Hints:
This protein is mainly α. It has 6 helices and 2 strands. Helix 2 (30-37) packs across helix 3 (41-49).
Amino acid sequence: xxxxxxxxxxxxxxxxxxxxxxxxxxxxxxxxxxxxxxxxxxxxxxxxxxxxxxxxxxxxxxxxxxxxxxxxxxxxxxxxxxxxxxxxxxxxxxxxxxxxxxxxxxxxxxxxxxxxxxxxxxxxxxxxxxxxxxxxxxxxxxxxxxxxxxxx
Length: 152
């Protein structure tokens, strides 16, 4: 048996309450439980009062009460509806996280595609500007040549 640290008081009381409720649900007295697991009745009383925690005796208590150590420690049975609901909620949250990660990777891919498109458009605009300059230069040469011709 170990004495509870001060910060664990509410947890210890919750464990104590589950111990008491499990014993009563099993239809046993403190003396009967003490006899079955080989401790004195005072130990059972102190565990149910939250004064001490039955760390070493927890597996034996769980067996006597017909519950799991998870239930006595945390209030949740491994196959309980509550635990199943928590698992479903966790799965739903994980699915949302996966969706967000997918959207994030899709956005990165889109950003890369847009950047590549801008690079291609920039190169095309440079090429177009170069051709336009050449065309204007050719037109200017033609216009200058016509201006240099004697009038007819």
